[in-house]
Amino acid sequence: MTSRDRYPSGMSAVPRSAKPHKGDRPSGRFRRMLDRLSSSQEDLECEELEEDSQASGCTRISECTDRQIVKVTGTLRTVTLRPRAGVPALEAELFDGTAPLDVVWLGRRSIQGIEPGRKLIASGRIAMSHGRRVLFNPKYELRPLGKE
Predict the structure, then answer these.
(1) Which residues have a Cβ under 8 Å from the Cβ of 68 and sit 6 or more positions away?
(2) Which helix (H) or strand (E) holds 131?
(3) Cys-Cys with 7: which of 11, 113, 135, 143 at CB 3.0–4.6 Å?
């Protein structure tokens, strides 16, 4: 009696932890094409952002720890003006495919080029605020629009 006979609904007798992960699969051209066709648009964008982060030599946001000096890259998802202690603060959410990072410019109401969908490289010291990673007043470099 095989596991297929015991589990007719397609369930496997192999525990999930013992199954091969996505990175363990053969990476032939046909396999990559099938993965792309069966993946959602969001998954494809996350994968592309992760590859871009690795190619530029930046730290993945998911690997950043409190008080660490980092250089990260990603796409701005949201940009909002939110006062902090009576001082204007421009806040943006940077996403690199692994995790979000809040980027905050204190004392700024707007910055030319900082808008949702824009790619940038930011560097500075990570802080943790309410369980989220935050980068205050980072050095930043806007990525060219033609590369998007």
Answers:
(1) 125, 126
(2) none
(3) 11
**121 contacts 109 by C-beta, under 8 angstroms:** no
* In contact, 135 and 101? CB cutoff 8 Å: yes
- Asked whether 96 and 135 are in contact (CB, 8 A), the reply is no
87 and 68 Cβ atoms separated by less than 8 Å: no
pLDDT in tens, 21-46: 445 555 688 777 777 667 777 777 87
**Helix (H) / strand (E) containing 115:** none
Q: How far is CA 119 from the centre of its chain?
A: 12
Average the pLDDT over 8-20 and give the result. 46
Cα 142 from Cα 93, distance rounded (Å): 15
For 132, the 3-state DSSP assignment is strand
Q: Which residues face 80 on adjacent strands? A: 91
Maximum Cα interatomic distance, the chain, rounded to a whole number of Å = 71
Backbone Cα Rg of the chain: 20
Tokens of 74: 């990603």
Strand pairing class (139-142; 132-136)? unpaired
pTM: 0.69
